[in-house]
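Entry 14. Ran structure prediction on the chain below.
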Amino acid sequence: MKLFTDVAQVTFGGIDKIFDVSSTFCEFYIGSKFVEIKWYGVIIAFGFTLAALLGGRIAYTWRINLSKMVDVLIYGSLGGIVGARAYYVIFEWDYYRENLGEIFAIWNGGLAIYGGIIGGIVAGFITCRLIKLNFFNLLDMVGMSLLIGQGIGRWGNYANQEAFGTFTNGNYGMMSDKIVRYITRNPDKFGLEGVTDIAAHIEENNLYVHPTFFYEFASCMVGFLVLYVIMKKFRKFSGQIFLCYGIWYGTERTIVEGLRTDSLYIGNTDLRVSQVLSMVIVAVCLVLLIVNLIRVKKNPKPIEGVDFFPEGSAKTLKEKKLEKMASENQKNGDENG
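Output, structure tokens:
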């Protein structure tokens, strides 16, 4: 077995150090079959695990049936994988219609985040209807969990040296031999048509690319903290956290997508699919958030899982605490008497 292979030498502007970044966690043979495990998959699995644990913790706090949550997790994950692949294939159909056998080869890459979110939500909605679970509470858990999973998952892009942006001369820029090879294959995306020696041109002009993977990681982590505070202090209705997620992530993705060079486009236009979709999501979520906050202010209602628990007693959590205190006081009084 070999560990940490397929190494790229990565440099950052302003940092006098070369980082050796491996894209392959390990590789080995099972009989005559060669098996390769990529860091991308390991990192995605780690992010997914943390997201699932966070969702489980919130479900426990809100007294949601954990057995039902497992059902949602299984079917939602399957729906997410199908949606992520379908989204990518649809917008790259010019290629896949000539290579139908590759449509299901997800191990070669080609999973779109927005497709995964859409597919997961659709599968989650159907599952919630069948098992009678509050779908909007589920969405709030998803919003929190997605930021954790997406943020950590972006480090998989760093391991692969992919999903980077256009040129920048900033001290925060990134460059590697893998990036140089990508630019050499796609000079038109970087305005280098006609340049004979692209590697030399990049070195002579001290060029770097935007590390957009890190921009998304940082945004997701900050967004998680913001949404966590909203959930704890300012949550007024079920679904509010997911709407805030849509506004936060949609805004960030609109900005970062404009820096990337590997975007999916709408037909033969210059419109980036994720950028357009992000702007629509921000607008829709913002309108729904404002409308619901106004409605709740006019007609306040308890929130399922916070103010009341439909699977248990209809009493509020505060009432239960008061009853427990009264019972303990009564017990202490009897013992003293």
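DSSP finds eleven helices and six strands in the chain. Will compare against last week's run tomorrow.
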